[in-house]
Amino acid sequence: MRERMTVEKIYISVSAGGQQVVAEKIDLVAGSGIVGDRNFGLSRWPGQNLTLIEVEEIESFIDEQNLAYDLSITRRNIITRGVKLNKLVGKEFLISGVRLKGIELCEPCSSLGKALASPTLSSGKVVEKFLHRGGLRVDVLTSGVIEVGAEVVCVP
């Protein structure tokens, strides 16, 4: 039996570098992203509308580093469970009927490295640990609402 692919958690941030705020649901506008998020309406590059990451990758990092359980540490918008996000690059998929397109991997940057570095783990090692596991940059193709618990459905 295939594991269900779902939205585990949702976060938005109203300002660059600002606190990640938990949301039970988000309103998305095609081509603009999440209403109320710092990147709403920006289109400096493809995939700026929305970011996703696998909860399994965050939990693995938290366990390895013996950190407090905090799924917001990667600053991605949607945390998924049971979804192999790397396989969605270049593909369309649905969450709660909202059509999305995986644009590119959301590779870790130096900001993430610095934020998660510790006395026992350098910034560079953080980036290395999240390389090809940092999530997915997504374009929002249709408007709608996504809620925690929603199923992620691949479009054939």
Task: Tell me the helix content.
Answer: 10-25%
Low-confidence stretches: none
The largest sheet, given as strand count, sense and whether it forms a barrel, is:
8 strands, mixed
CATH class: Mainly Beta
The CATH topology assignment is M1 Pyruvate Kinase, Domain 3
The tally of helices reads 3
Query: Could you tell me the radius of gyration in angstroms?
Result: 15 Å
How many strands? 11
Q: Which H/E pattern describes the elements?
A: EEEEEHEEEHHEEE
Report strand order across the widest sheet: 2-1-6-5-9-8-7-11
CATH architecture: Beta Barrel
Total count of domains: 1
Our measurement of the CA-to-CA distance between the termini, rounded to an integer number of angstroms, reads 19 Å
Query: Structural class, please?
Result: alpha+beta
Q: How would the global form be characterised?
A: globular
| Beta-strand residue percentage | 25-35%
Mean pLDDT: 91
Question: What is the topology?
Answer:
Layout lengths: L5 E7 L8 E2 L2 E5 L3 E2 L15 E5 H11 L12 E4 L10 E4 L2 E8 L4 H7 L6 H8 L5 E5 L3 E4 L4 E3 L2
Parallel strand pairs: 5-6
Antiparallel strand pairs: 1-2, 1-6, 3-4, 3-10, 5-9, 7-8, 7-11, 8-9
Keywords:
11 strands; three-stranded antiparallel β-sheet; M1 Pyruvate Kinase, Domain 3
Explain what you see:
The structure is a single chain. The chain has a single domain (6-145), classed as PK beta-barrel domain-like (M1 Pyruvate Kinase, Domain 3). A hairpin with an 8-residue loop joins strand 1 and strand 2. The chain is globular, with a radius of gyration of 15 Å. The mean pLDDT is 91. It has an eight-stranded mixed β-sheet. Strands 4-3-10 form a three-stranded antiparallel β-sheet, with no helix packed on it. With 156 residues, it is of the alpha+beta class. Helix 2 (110-116) crosses helix 3. The protein is built from three helices and eleven strands.
